[in-house]
Amino acid sequence: MYFVILAGGVGSRLWPRSRRQMPKQFLNITSPERTMLQETYERVADMAPDDHFIVVTSKAYAPTVREQLPQVPEDNILAEPKGRGSAPAIGVAALFVRRRNPDAVMACLSADHFITRTKEFRRALRAAEKAAKEGYLVTLGIKPSYAETGYGYIEGGEVLMKADGTEIRKAVRFIEKPQLEDAQRFVADGNFYWNAGMFIWQASTILDAFARYMPDLYQRLMEIEAFWDETGKVGEIPEEIWLAIESETIDYGIMEKADNVAVIPADLGWSDVGSWATLLDLLPPSDDGANVVVGRHVGIDTRNSLIFSPERLIATVGLENIVIVDTGDVILVCPKERAQDVKKVVQYLEEQGLYDVL
Q1: Looking at the whole model, is its pTM more than 0.90?
Q2: Cβ(279)–Cβ(27) below 8 Å
Q3: Residue 290 belongs to domain spanning
Q4: What pLDDT is stored for residue 149 in this prediction?
């Protein structure tokens, strides 16, 4: 099996810690010892040799990937001239894998996910590999622990096959981020799963799907492959071709349309670390007030808050459910329940041209 790590995002929801120059996947967010990219690699490192790992990232981040994952061959780092969404990124990785082995199975993983149940994760990947060899486009569906409105959902249908005791079910439909009432109904139903954006398939199968459902993208991918054949620069992404590609997600472009999609229900202790509030829920408390503190903090009657301040002392009095992030040049303060709206701050800064703090 090949592992494709998607590491091109900018991580705006963890601003100001995550910046354009150094987004969250390259930071020690969920572990003091390793970055999120390194954690993603380590979870599956013993499942394949290092030359079976491919990282898709932006040109700007390629040197950081090489620095953090020196064991991955430099030729296996595919540098996008500009972000074009998950579908083109996965497409060019599939081209790369198919040249190595047309029958190879590739698992597509995000570089910024948090998973606590590693053994269960690997078990699900092995089951997915077997289903992929039967021609399925497989995704992992996370068993929901509550009615989350920030994730998409997948409805699971009939059991298609079993692999080592793991059920592989037909994916009936993909649902965009729902309203709360719908999310509550999905959780109560028991046949709906969070869409974690992890995919497993044969390189040839997904390329066939691109040809059928995204013919314009497929044509551009064929142009990239022709460039590789003509120049010998396999893995290099020509800018002129790439910039002509429309941005699109793999979910909308393929998964919502294909008829050979399967879902593996899994309980992985998974999170996409999508906000500071998520991080507050993930990390162990630092004190009796259930606060999560990174840095120096003095709290009087302060509870269930996240304080990130590696350099300066932060003192709080009478606060609850608050996020405070001090990066030296920027201070963010917001209620925990509004943490998703940090991206609105980032949008405003972009509109105002304040790129020095982005």
Answers
A1: yes
A2: no
A3: 276-357
A4: 87
